[in-house]
Amino acid sequence: MTIVSPFELANIDGINGTVVQGVSAASIFADDLSNIGDINSDGIDDFVIAEENNNRAYVILGNANGIPNNLNVNALNPNGYRIIGPSGFSEDVAGVGGDVNQDGFNDFIVGADDSNSAYVIFGGTTIADLSVSSTNNSRFIKIQGIAGEDFGQSVGGAGDFNGDGVSDVVIGAPGANGDNGAVFIIYGGANFPTEELNVGNTTEFNVTNGLRINNNLITDAEFGTDVASAGNFDGVGGDDLIVGAPVASTNDGTAFIISSDNNSSSTPRNLSTFSFLRVDGTSNELLGESVSGTGNVGGSSNDDVIIGARGSTNGKAYVIFGRGGGILDLATTTLTGTDGFAITGRASGDQAGRSVSAGDINGDGQNDLIVGARFADPDSARTDAGEVYVVYGRTNYTSGNIPVISLNGTNGFIATGIDAGNQAGTSVSAGDFNNDGIDDLLIGAPRGNSNKGEAYVIYGESTNGPGLTPGVNIRGTFRPDNLVGGAGNNTIYGLLGNDTLTGFGGNDLLNGGAGSDRLNGGPGSDTMTGGLGSDFFVYSGPTEGIDTITDFSVAQDDIAVSGAGFGVGAVTGANFAVGTGAPGTTPGFSYNSGTGDLFFWSNSTTSTQLATLSSNLSLTNSNFVVTA
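User: That's the sequence. What structure does it adopt?
Assistant: Structure tokens below.
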């Protein structure tokens, strides 16, 4: 089932998503937030929410049963924990995309630019609140920057920038070198610091554990305002790095996609010594204030990036497809859809592109683009309520510009803020926080909830449902559901829980999802997918049509047949056969392992096909259960 457009954030109900509430007025809770991957090794993505004015960050743990709705951040346990820091703590938050200290848990990073510092928080199973104002301990380390450089204004994962197989950390310092800017890369692995690291001390910080890159190309650019991994953008070597410089060229803005490098023999190094693609913005766009890798959305073998430009008239974001180095001047080059495209905001002053991200929100295997517009007006009564735009990825793009007003639920959707002034879309991210295999959308509204701030999770919806065709019209929840179709062609998706799915008439599509489910297509030629768990495929009689069972597992699943409907008391070795002929005793059943066809035999010469399973299954009579 596709997510409707517009999707009203006010309609989040704990089933289609969840709300995390701030508790302190004017704390700018959720001014930034980020997917941080699976930090507690339970197999589910987690996320972190910044609250800079209270010097706190909040870790919210993903949950296969759904994150509790209206979660209060002062009462998180067992759903997460608080991190308390010094002045300016939580200016920026980000996952690092891996395990930098190689202890088996993914890690994340929090910036504190008022104190020119950043804190790497190590993953683990402990959920007690954490104070990083104390000395370093086994749960975090402090990275101390240089006074006056705004070190920690941006933080992120650098991917594997130096090609050693371990994720690295990147920290922006846009105030360095008289606002020219710099970034610092801290290498993950054996040399990752175990105690406070001072990057201004050459004894502590050197080519063995990191690298400083100084912007020597554009003056007053504030290079390092935002940072992120670009994946393998240039198609060569390891992971590349994207760095925004939004006030370059008198606020036109620039972003650099810097190619991975494992040959640094000294630090610092000038930006001019690296291979890179330079993307220049146009008149006062502030291009590069927000940047993100997107994975491969352009269809080539290279990864791609998205760059926010909130300063343009309506605001926009540019998706740039992976390529080699050089200069891409957007003032003189028009994107065509083959090299990238722009996502253009709805109205003047909306600031579309204030935040950008990517994830597969519709579960089709293609990453989607996410753009926040904090000053968008969903209607005349909701000035600056904010909006978020999700543009569904595709294998090819025929236009160099996608206006967000074209999003209609089939090509993407618009999520709208609740009340005037909420500024939903100030921050955005994505990850699979409910473990259903589909990425979920994460939105920050720092002025929501009576100025206390709110964060919203919209659970991703597959346009196909796992194994199904488009048009899911009945969807379950995270609990056991009884889902019943009508006389037409229904598509029913159980999601989580031990569900009962009944199609009745028509050619139905049933998918149990996770859990141990009972699927009964009823009359018609139905397609049934059990999904995870031990499932029952139910038949009331032999004349209901020929079904397709897509994923029957002889180790887990069973075929439940009605004793009254089929005239059998049990299915034994005598009235079940593998082959093309009738079983020795009838009524009974046979399975043709060559074709996967399952038959009911009312007598030794009369058969009716019930279903088609996979071929060459080791199906036996023990896979049948006789019901009343």
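The first helix runs from residue 176 to 179.
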